[in-house]
Design goal:
Elements (H helix, E strand, L loop, with lengths): L11 H11 L3 E2 L11 H12 L12 H15 L9 E4 L1 H13 L5 E6 L5 H7 L3 E6 L8 H7 L4 E7 L11 H11 L5 E5 L19 H4 L2 E6 H4 L8 E4 L2 H11 L8 H10 L4 H4 L1 H14 L16 E5 L8 H12 L1 E2 L1 E2 L12 E5 L4 H15 L2
Parallel strand pairs: 1-10, 3-4, 3-5, 5-6, 6-7
Antiparallel strand pairs: 2-8, 7-8, 9-12, 11-12
Helix pairs in contact: 1-14, 2-11, 3-11, 4-5, 4-10
Length: 380
Amino acid sequence: MRSKLPGAPTSIFAVMSGLAREHNAINLSQGFPDFDLSPELIELMDKNMREGNNQYAPMQGVQPLREEISVKINRDYGRCYNPDTEINITAGATQALFTAFNAFVFAGDEVIVIEPAYDSYIPSIILNGGKPVPIPLTADFRYDWDQIRSAVNPRTRMIVINSPHNPLGTTFHEEDITALTEITRNTDILIISDEVYEHIIFDGKKHLSMAKYPELAERSLVISSFGKTFHATGWKVGYIVGPSKYIAEFRKIHQFTVFAVNTPAQMSYSEFLKNPEHYLHLNEFYQNKRDFLNSFFTDTKLKFTPAEGTYFQIFDYSAYSDEDDFTFAKRLTAEAGTAVIPLSPFYTVDYSGRKIRVCFAKRDKILQEGAERVLEYLST
């Protein structure tokens, strides 16, 4: 049988979560919270279902939610997107990404992807006829703008940006904004900016959204996710914003793939967003969790730089083992009883690093038990 993705492996998240279940391990691999969302949001969902908001939503998303998103982005980043023509609600960020690739990538188009990269980017590009051009980050996980600049040519259709970055927990800096602006100026290159962790950023840093910079905003599709912001990944509601000419093309594809997104969830978010306090302190909440997790490894040979954002922390285990990262991650899961994620599945270019990703979007009790199991295992 023919396959559109021959040789495509099972997602590393499914693999490691399956191993965690098999070995009854603490699961610090897959990136979702194990704590509940706001009771107020649950009450809003219940209210909206009881009030009859249970049928198809408009294809572009319910008007109140698009209006609140417009207000939110203007408040956070100083740009006003028209809720009628420049904002579309999606079934999570992954659908927004896939539909964007479907709408704008044609056969033979090249798409620059910075690696390591979230594992849906490259398959989505391939499925839509594009040619991924992977550019690895530097050894200290910063953007190699000289290499990115060298990769740009007349066939370059897009550059995919992700900040805060999954899996690394790094963020865009002002010098990155300057370089990206210079590289894309006077070109037709479209920027896909995956900003699902926009409100999970630490140590007083500010999120540098493409929406904040007029020259970049005019060529950017910015994607975000309520699931990441409000601990409701299972509701699968996200959104995409951009200039009207791009959103119009996006909608042509969106209407024939998903069409409508969960109506009571959209109505609930439209009310919940009216109070920015519901997300403005998310950085403090997750920074406490990051610091709590890292405190267990401060005096060990596991090397780390505290994550700048997201709810993921990278650890370098090279002082403990020369094994490849997948083998080491499987061993930690089976023998230490704590599941983590290796970095190599996030690369298509050669990767021989000794690093793992740990998710700290978990209850403190779970983080402590998972960390203590690793500490005990590494000390034997």
